[in-house]
Amino acid sequence: MDETIINLMLRNLDGSLEDCESNKKMDSIIELIDIRCEGDCNLKVKSLLQQAVKTIKLKDSQIELKDSLIKAKDGQIDSLIMALNKKSDMNDSIENKRDIPLHLEETESDEDKNIADIVSRYKTKLEEANKLLQESFSLVKSNEIQNLQLEEQLAAKTFEHDLQIKSYESKIKELENKIRIEGEDSKEEKPTQVEIFFALHKPQVFQIENKISGSGWLIITQFKMDNGSWTKKIIVPSKFVYDIVKDQPTEFYIHIVRADGTVHYAHYKNFCCYYKVSNDYRDDNYRIRSMELLNSSMKIYGSFEGRTFKDIAESFNHNCVFYQLMIRKMQNEN
């Protein structure tokens, strides 16, 4: 039997041997190829054909399975191709990016640098601001402490000033009382001279000065310029001055008037005299033991201790038109 003819016939079955029409087709095929066959040859051929059909069906199943596997592989391949395409697109994008002109890359780089510089600058400014804020807090705290100290000092000064004001008020009140008393005394007629008695000497009359620096001053020396020369007006002998001041604390006062009309003075306390030789009553034998300056309108340097009244006159009567020395008993306020 020609196997080629059998294969062509089997293909005409189209792989559908399980239905009735397939069996009919198989019988017709057997009839066609079995003209010279004897006995059960038909049955053998039919059995052979059925096995061939099963083999073909098995082959078809294997082919379908292979087709499924091929389709799955095709799907995987398609996925791989898509992934490769995406990767290729990314590579193309990267390549395109690499193809960016150099000046654009430099521009982007400059912009990045500018942004970094701005960030750095603002960061620095922020740090400086925080530092200034901390310094401001420190200054505020320091100022608060200083203000507290100043308030305490001001309170202490205010208290001190209040005490001074009270002291001044007290002194003003005392001066007012003194002025009132002196005003009352001024209403009384003050004597302009007094007679003083000395042992072994006749009484001496002293002129009293009540206007220059209070009342009760005894004038012991007075000169006045007249036509360019001194005119002697009052000179109390030194021995009488010595007798007056030796047993009591005494004030001493110098009063002068300059040629230009200005008035000057020097006020001393604890004025005291002594004599060098006993029983010698000449003026130059009596000397000044002590005199302490209370106040003066002139700058006076040096000491008159051991000097005579004449020495005092020579020190103060230069360019003067009036010169006067006075003494009185030490007043309580001095």
Helix/strand layout:
Elements lengths: L2 H9 L8 H14 L7 H58 L3 H86 L5 E6 L2 E9 L7 E10 L2 E7 L2 H8 L4 E9 L4 E13 L10 E11 L12 H8 L3 E10 L5
Antiparallel strand pairs: 1-2, 2-3, 3-4, 3-8, 5-6, 5-8, 6-7
Oligomer: single chain
Q: Work out the count of structural domains.
A: 3
Estimate the helix proportion, in percent. 40-55%
Mean pLDDT: 78
Largest beta sheet, briefly?
A: 8 strands, antiparallel
* Overall 3D shape: rod-shaped
Secondary structural class: alpha+beta
Q: How would you portray this structure in words?
A:
The chain is an alpha+beta fold and about 325 residues long. It has three domains: about 5-80; about 100-190; about 195-330, Gamma Fibrinogen, chain A, domain 1 (Gamma Fibrinogen, Chain A, domain 1), CATH 3.90.215. About 55% of the residues lie in helices and about 20% in strands. The protein has helices at about 5-10, 20-35, 40-100, 100-185, 240-245, 310-315; strands at about 195-200, 200-210, 215-225, 230-235, 250-260, 265-275, 285-295, 320-330. The longest helix is centred in the middle third of the chain and has 86 residues, at about 100-185. The chain starts with a helix and ends in a 5-residue tail after the last strand.
